[in-house]
Fold this sequence. Notes:
By secondary structure, the chain is an alpha/beta fold. The protein has helices at 3-17, 36-49, 66-69, 103-109, 112-120, 133-137; strands at 25-31, 52-60, 75-77, 82-85, 89-91, 97-99, 129-132, 141-142, 150-151. Strands 1, 2, 3, 4, 7, 8 and 9 form a seven-stranded mixed beta sheet that branches. Strands 5-6 form a two-stranded antiparallel sheet. The longest helix is centred in the first third of the chain and has 15 residues, at 3-17. It starts with a helix and ends with a strand.
Amino acid sequence: MNKKCLTAFLAAVFLVAGIGASDAVVRIAQDAGGRIEIYVGKYQGVSSSGERVIIDGSCVSACTIVLGTVPHDRICVTPRARLGFHAAWDPDSRGRKITNPQAQNLYLMYPFEIRRWIDQRGGLTARMIFLSGRELASMFRPCYTDSQASSR
């Protein structure tokens, strides 16, 4: 191997070696939520990995667990970001909505400014409330979509 090729090869190796999990990005675009325990596990993994999160669209219901699981400084929002909150519930044996026992824990996971915003709108109820635009941008740093980001 000639000297130029060796130099180029070593530069490529060091570049790849320098890219770690902390450089990874998770992009949330259209997430309607689901089971609380699934999202807690999912975002605890993101938090442990050091990945950053871009919220670039709808993140509603259990998806919002990301706010209380991933450190605030690793979350950013685009102008398209829209968070939706409601009281967590499960269907009973007849299909009626009953409050999920983890609902209070979920609420307490949210950062203070999110809890205050929810409280100012009457708290969590069966009705979905949405946080977006300037209000959301005032709570999280702005970001722009990253073509390298993976949607989850």
